[in-house]
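User: Could you check the structure of this?
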Amino acid sequence: MKQLMEKVINQITDQKAEADLMFSSAKTLKMSAQKNTISTYNVSSSQILGVRVIKDGRVGLSYTESLDDESLKLLVKQALQNAETTEVNAHERILDLAGTLQDELFLPEEEVSIALKTEKALLLENGVKKLDHRVTAVPYNSYSEQDYLSHYLSSRGRFTTYRDKSYTITSSAVMDEKGKKSNYYDFHMAHVFKDLNFQKVIDTALFHSRNLLQEKTLPTGKYNIRFTEDSLQSLFNCFSNFYSAKSAMDQVNPWTNHLGTEVISKDLSIIDHPLFERSFRTSKFDSEGVQRKPLSLIEDGVLKSFYHNSVTANHYKAQTTGHAARSASSPLGVYGTDLLIKGKNVKPLPKKYLEVIKMDGLHSGANRVTGAFSVAVKGYIWERGERVGTFGNITLSGKFMDLLRQVEVTGTDLLSSTDESFFSVPLMFYDISIAGSN
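Assistant: Sure, the predicted structure tokens are below.
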């Protein structure tokens, strides 16, 4: 593949242009079940080669799924033509990096028969139904595996290889008890088949769905809130533009002019950590071939940095932070890796608080420019360290930046999201508005 990519690069440099190429391929298997039979069985493979050409300060993109000589010539021709129609971009250029980087995770494992995979896929549906007669449906159940490979090559000589194999399983439980309904789903990921925890996703889906059958609304008012790590991760992902230099350039980042100032509680520090040893998958380099390292976004409440790729770094006269993001068919963007939220000044838990385990409609009810959001939530009521009830049919609203000011740290252990890409000390958010019953 490297030789083919070098051939394309040479065609472009012959036209007195510079470029980089992204190649990716994936092999996937996915199964899901309904009524104790496999209802979906998909085996697929894909490949795509994309090019970013820069000539006379103008950027052109093109991609192809075919790798024959004629398709490659057309790829180059279209990219150069597309560059001619764009405006000059003084900040976008190919980085002066050379050498080879590898980030390959492909763990050895024994061959697993399709019969066993099918049996386990069926378990994700029938295993739920067998454990509780109130289960009426298991709408989200799936077994999937993916073998992914990507290469990057620039006209300056940087070549990278990334490879990963992963397995994902999901299960859910829709329950009905005398007309009252509830639902919950869970998932698990692993790099080898034998590490998949099928019983965990079944038990978790059933546990929360059973409890949510007992949900009650709460009076409108202000409450102390704890988010599970998955719920907190969803909030941070929804407002990831707050850390993006690209969104700052586009004037859609409310923290654009706040570098060096206190933006959240001084008890919190937030680190983007692509190499964190507890992560499901570490990441050694970005989509421009830049080696990654931990980045301190916020220290003791003070905003220290944004995510930068080379374009935003040139715009702000800064250094790229290794957060370029691009697929073979997309322009250059900015994206973070794994987040670590650390804290100090640990306080005791309040006597009473709500634990949010489920949020519906977060992105549709959020304004990423102002930070305002409104979301339907469900979860548990805690009093004096004991779970005493389940709530639902209420709406939580506020502003993301205010939320992170009205917070106390209640523990020291870094707790993980289910996908092991988000880690946070226990946090308690105070006086959060809830709309429920009058």
